[in-house]
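Tokens as discussed.
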């Protein structure tokens, strides 16, 4: 299991008897609450959570030839081939309420319906919510100026306070003052946020308004504009990512 997978402990609602966990916001997707109906306990509790219908008779298995695999491949999850999911480990009491058990959970399709996959980003998105067709843009020659930084601050501000964005914006301010040399990561972040702002405006989303229904598509289309795959061409420095991780752990 990847060490980056977060671990959550559910909280029992005494009124409803349900366990509740809140998944943190994920790159523009709002926080989501998941309710879990725990296994009933006590002397009057049923021995199972299904129905009492008789178990159907099992057809006789006539057998088949089994060939041993030449080699066993172990894949650490979440695998890179699995896209558009939010995963976590649920830590909760077991059915006897004596011990605990860990359950690995994957929530797929967090961004709703899609109709296209990005050639470079590998992300699914909806072209109708992207703010226009893909353009052929280049982040490498970007020149960071005050007007552009103000646009970055305007756009990222719609998502609320974010420690990773704060680190990157602080870097842009230092670049303007000549205190820091712009890196490729800075240029990718800078050009991406400005272009994403343009896509939001093309969709009719007012400045300062966070529309969760379009973020993934506008974000993915912007990655495609600049031919970026975030796994190989990050838009956040390690310090920015660490700031985000610590903030999430502190919630």
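Sequence:
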């Amino acid at each position: 299991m990847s060490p980056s997978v977060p671990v959550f402990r559910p909280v029992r609602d005494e009124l409803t008897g349900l366990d509740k966990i809140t998944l943190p916001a994920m790159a523009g997707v709002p926080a989501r609450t998941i309710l879990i109906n725990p296994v009933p306990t006590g002397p009057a509790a049923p021995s199972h959570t299904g129905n009492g219908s008789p178990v159907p008779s099992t057809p006789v298995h006539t057998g088949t030839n089994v060939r041993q695999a030449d080699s066993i491949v172990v894949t650490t999850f979440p695998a890179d081939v699995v896209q558009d999911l939010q995963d976590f480990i649920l830590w909760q009491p077991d059915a006897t309420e004596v011990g605990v058990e860990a359950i690995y959970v994957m929530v797929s399709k967090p961004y709703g319906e899609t109709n296209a996959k990005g050639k470079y980003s590998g992300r699914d998105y909806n072209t109708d919510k992207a703010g226009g067709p893909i353009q052929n843009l280049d982040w490498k020659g970007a020149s960071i100026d005050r007007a552009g930084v103000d646009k970055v601050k305007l756009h990222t501000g719609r998502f609320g306070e974010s420690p990773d964005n704060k680190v990157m914006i602080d870097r842009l301010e230092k670049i303007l003052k000549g205190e820091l040399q712009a890196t490729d990561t800075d240029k990718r972040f800078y050009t991406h946020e400005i272009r994403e702002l343009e896509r939001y405006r093309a969709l009719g989303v007012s400045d300062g308004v966070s529309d969760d229904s379009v973020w993934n598509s506008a974000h993915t289309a912007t990655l495609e504009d600049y031919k970026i795959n975030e796994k190989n061409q990050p838009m956040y420095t390690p310090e920015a990512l660490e700031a985000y991780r610590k903030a999430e752990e502190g919630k």
